[in-house]
Amino acid sequence: MEMQANLRQLLATLDQATELSALQDSIVALRDHYGIAHMVYHWVSADGEQYGCGTYSTAWVQHYVTQDYLRIDPVIIGCFQRFHPVDWKALDWSGKAAVAFRAEAVQAGVGNQGYSIPIRGPRGQFALFSVSDTARDDAWADFTQKNHRDLLLCAHQFNQKALELEIRRMPEPVKPLSGREVDVLTYLAMGYSRGQVAQTLSISEHTLRAYVESARHKLGASNTMHAVARAVAEGLIVMGGAARNARGDWPGRSEAAE
After folding, report:
1. What's the rounded Cα separation, in Å, for the pair 76 and 244?
2. What CDD domains does the record tag this protein with (predicted)?
3. Cα–Cα distance, 217 to 210 (Å, whole number)
4. How far does the chain reach from its first CA to its final CA, in angstroms?
5. Residue 258 in 3-state DSSP?
6. How far apart are CA 176 and CA 11, in angstroms?
7. What is the pLDDT of residues 116-154, one digit of tens each?
8. Mind listing the pLDDT tens digit for each residue in 28-57?
9. Is residue 24 helix, strand or coil?
10. 26 three-state secondary structure
């Protein structure tokens, strides 16, 4: 009962926040309430700006941004393809880049356990609420099972407050994408690497980059991840669906390189 009363008080304080900096104080307090290593809220706003709050070290956050780990982070990639909370161990960490990234994250103190809640808001907003720790597998399973409902509440309350405080302009309506731009974004949304997309569509990686940049410009997106998010939100691509090639065929048939 005392734990629940404390949580209600912390969420009430969050609800009264009038500026984004107050979210940082709230997330630190909630992290301490649960007695875990880290808690993070991160979003991509309607106009492509990224911001958030959390308890990771400043050095790790700066390194993550500098190395553009957004492109390879299995948590970002995996959660973008899901609508329900997911334990990090259920994600695909098999690639060489993912293995190296995970080792760096653990070394930076992120923790060997994690649990993320994907959130989707208006006009392409995509956010994540994550908790992580260094607990044993059984202890972490008990923690997530016991607290998953409250964590879901926390996630959506953080997102709702962030949306209330978001005063930037909404983006202009997106311009139509070409069939090939849709193909490229669809495969990227499905988790394909750029090299795999280029091979599947029988185009060079240089041509692939041109399609990505063109789509990003049309969508008013700040980066590839945001372009994919906007395309999904606008109904231009469908997650889990197969992409067509330029002739309207399905993948598997050969196509001249572009």
Report:
1. 25
2. LuxR_C_like
3. 11
4. 64
5. coil
6. 41
7. 999 887 766 788 999 999 999 999 999 999 999 989 988
8. 999 999 999 999 998 865 555 667 889 998
9. helix
10. helix
State whether 119 and 137 are in the same domain.
yes
Q: Helix, strand, or coil here: 71?
A: helix
Q: 200-205 long-range contacts, Cβ below 8 Å, gap at least 24? A: 200/251, 201/243, 201/245, 201/251, 201/255, 202/254, 202/255, 202/256, 202/257, 202/258, 203/257, 203/258, 204/257, 204/258
Rounded to whole angstroms, how far apart are CA atoms 235 and 135? 40
Domain that holds residue 58: 2-165
pTM comes to 0.63
Helices (runs of H) and strands (runs of E) counted in the chain: 10, 5
CATH number at residue 51: 3.30.450.80
Contact call for residues 64 and 75 (beta carbons, < 8 A): no
Residue 204 to residue 162: CA distance in whole angstroms: 40
CA–centroid distance for 114 within its chain:
14
Nearest alpha-carbon partner for 82 in 250, 240, 258: 240
Query: What is the C-alpha to C-alpha distance for residues 7 and 66, in angstroms, rounded to an integer?
Result: 35
Tokens of 115: 């649990």
Q: Are residues 108 and 234 in the same domain?
A: no
**Is 140 found in the same domain as 46?**
yes
